[in-house]
Amino acid sequence: MGNNIRITKQFSFETGHALYGYDGKCKNVHGHSYKLSVTVIGKPITDNTNVKFGMVIDFGDLKKIVKEEIVNVFDHATVFNKNTPHVELAKELQDRGHNVLLVDYQPTSEMMVLDFSKKIGKRLPKHIKLHSLKLQETDTSFAEWFAYENN
């Protein structure tokens, strides 16, 4: 009988982006109030001398990792694909004091959630595995990443 438990913590951040070469409105610089759900899986700590006894992971510890890797980086930043002519626009914005993030992918929800899975996964304690991520761009649109589909 397994004792694996999934723990989820939700985060939100405001981020701007533009999709270079896209054939719709999202080619223009715009922003979203993103909601990110991070789900990890593990067994509750059974050592009753451990201050984290009964926890899979302290929500505070998970929060620290996700804040450092994702929220503090992406919040109130504008994300551009650095492999496009948007790099010139990004430089202009940076020169004017704007918070710009240059990534080596098209900043869609799909590609962002893939990036987040790598960044969060490498920071988790050994006994904790990243189970899934859900990145909500609007009330009705989101991208999901599941570990078991990406082994």
TrEMBL record:
Binding note for cofactor: Binds 1 zinc ion per subunit.
Reaction catalyzed: 7,8-dihydroneopterin 3'-triphosphate + H2O = 6-carboxy-5,6,7,8-tetrahydropterin + triphosphate + acetaldehyde + 2 H(+)
EC number: 4.1.2.50
Residues binding Zn(2+), per UniProt: H17, H30, H32
Keyword terms of this UniProt record: Lyase, Metal-binding, Zinc
Molecular function GO labels: 6-carboxytetrahydropterin synthase activity; metal ion binding
Signal peptide: none
Active site: C26 (proton acceptor), H76 (charge relay system), E137 (charge relay system)
Superkingdom, taxonomy of origin: Bacteria
Cofactor annotation: Zn(2+)
Pathway: Purine metabolism; 7-cyano-7-deazaguanine biosynthesis
Keyword Zinc in annotation: yes
Protein family membership: Belongs to the PTPS family. QueD subfamily.
Protein name as catalogued: 6-carboxy-5,6,7,8-tetrahydropterin synthase
Organism: Algibacter marinivivus
